[in-house]
Amino acid sequence: xxQLVESGGGEVHAGDSLRLSCVASGMTFNDHAMGWFxxxxxxxxxxxxxxxxxxxxxxxxxxxxxxxxxxxxxDKNTLSLQMDNLKPEDTAVYYCAASTWAGMVMLAxxxxxxxxxxxxxxxx
Length: 124
Prior knowledge:
Layout: E1 3-7, E2 10-13, E3 18-25, E4 34-39, E5 46-51, E6 58-60, E7 68-73, E8 78-83, E9 92-99, E10 111-114, E11 118-123
Parallel strand pairs: 2-11
Antiparallel strand pairs: 1-3, 3-8, 4-5, 4-9, 5-6, 7-8, 9-10, 9-11
């Protein structure tokens, strides 16, 4: 049974940093490109970042590019998202996901496995 468990969310102020983690189990972690998405109340799920299987390439959504950094440790089955210079509009539930594709993808429908999400709240 595949499980993705996110952690690291919380409430911070604008300009602060947070680091999210996602630990995978029940799957061969390095067989999957991974991604981060977020969902704010009343909004569609938004692509944040994708990382390839080896961790050597990343792709970001325009709203976070330059502020967020995705990485992975295949030895520890862990995906991370370093979030710097947070803004109130970054407030959302953040999800990690495992793709069925070998390469990076931005479409949520291309991701087969999802975590339960972790709340990030950024106060102004």
